[in-house]
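Please fill in the sequence for the structure shown.

STRUCTURE ENCODING:
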């Protein structure tokens, strides 16, 4: 169908099915199309069966149909097209058509209508119909190509995650042995060999331990979405409480103050939400400034989603690094300054996106960071109350 429409548009060749009970009117329509520059080949049909037979045997670029015929209405041709899965422009060519009826016909996907007393519009209407058909074909082709690429990307991501999971899982045991024996060497022979030996053994121990941490991080990242739990009503307040309990040592060491307004209940993976809040609060503690760290958590309803905010008073992030920080294994600081492998925010992004949301940061160097993310609202949402102070929760 696409090729026929393109040919009709480019070189004037046009195959038309005319649904008309008056042969003279059909001849007038063909003559008008030829005057408009089309090289017309046509077939005439007067009944539903004839329309169906012609559509089964031939390919048409456009259909011209009278509104009322003795045996059926021209608009019923649309039903035949739907039954056959065809997408051919249909233009009503009729003697009289009330405005309400004309609007109703267009609503039923008739491309256009032309009055028989004004056939000079016919060529213009046909050209417009052919162009619209061409654009529909191109749009459908683009949508199909996009869907194919999305499927390919999904399969590729799944394969990569599977590879990362299997590779890192299988590497754990031999690396555990390397780390254990290098640590044993360090303990047993420290000071018994020369200084270079102690230094080399130290490098080996440090490298093995760092590799273990890296593999554990890769496993954590690959597990997001693989070992997810069923989405169910999840209290975000409880998720924050659990995250803070997991950070008890860091909370007590840093003296962080975590305040929040009550958070909603959402349909989500509770384990993943705990990880999400834990990583964001943990980052605020890790990248704190000279002042005691303060973290403020809030949420507000925004249409069909909740907008969460996690703000801190830490060292901040330069504007040019706002997107960079959400990529896996990307670090802004040396390991001597801050520990870690640069995977926490990548996990946050993956969790949020797998819940259908998005995450971003507003920050300037030295001015703290405000992380924002969205999660879909649902029927389990609860009303929000007043602000609470997490220090009271920890002490209980």
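FILLED IN BY: designer on duty
SEQUENCE:
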């Amino acid at each position: 169908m696409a090729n026929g429409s393109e040919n009709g548009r480019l070189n004037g060749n046009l195959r038309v099915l005319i649904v008309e009970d008056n042969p003279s009117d059909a001849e007038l329509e063909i003559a008008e199309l030829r005057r408009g520059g089309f090289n017309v080949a046509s077939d005439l049909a007067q009944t539903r069966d004839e329309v169906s037979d012609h559509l089964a045997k031939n390919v048409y670029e456009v259909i011209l149909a009278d509104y009322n015929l003795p045996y059926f209405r021209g608009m019923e041709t649309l039903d035949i097209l739907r039954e056959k899965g065809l997408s051919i422009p249909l233009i009503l060519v009729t003697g009289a058509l009330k405005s309400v009826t004309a609007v109703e016909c267009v609503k039923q996907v008739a491309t256009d209508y032309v009055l028989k007393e004004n056939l000079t519009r016919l060529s213009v209407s046909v050209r417009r119909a052919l162009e619209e058909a061409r654009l529909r074909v191109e749009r459908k082709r683009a949508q199909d190509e996009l869907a194919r690429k999305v499927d390919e990307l999904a399969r590729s991501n799944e394969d990569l995650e599977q590879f990362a999971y299997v590779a890192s899982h299988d590497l754990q045991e031999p690396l555990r042995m390397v780390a254990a024996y290098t640590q044993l060497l360090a303990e047993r022979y420290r000071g018994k060999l020369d200084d270079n030996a102690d230094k080399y053994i130290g490098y080996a121990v440090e490298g093995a331990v760092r590799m273990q941490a890296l593999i554990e991080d890769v496993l954590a990242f690959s597990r997001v979405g693989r070992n997810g739990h069923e989405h169910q009503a999840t209290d975000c307040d409880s998720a924050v409480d659990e995250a803070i309990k997991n950070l008890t040592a860091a909370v007590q060491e840093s003296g962080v103050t975590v305040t929040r307004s009550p958070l909603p209940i959402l349909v989500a993976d509770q384990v993943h939400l705990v990880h999400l809040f834990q990583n964001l609060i943990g980052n605020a503690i890790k990248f704190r400034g000279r002042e005691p760290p303060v973290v403020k958590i809030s949420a507000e309803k925004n249409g069909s989603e909740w907008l969460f905010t996690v703000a801190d008073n830490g060292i901040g992030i330069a504007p040019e690094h706002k997107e960079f920080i959400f990529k896996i294994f990307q670090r802004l600081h040396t390991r001597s300054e801050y520990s870690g492998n640069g995977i926490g925010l990548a996990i946050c992004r993956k969790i949020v996106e797998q819940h259908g949301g998005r995450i971003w940061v507003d920050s300037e160097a030295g001015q703290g960071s405000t992380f924002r993310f969205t999660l879909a609202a649902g029927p389990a949402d609860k009303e929000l109350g007043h602000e609470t102070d997490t220090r009271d929760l920890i002490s209980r």
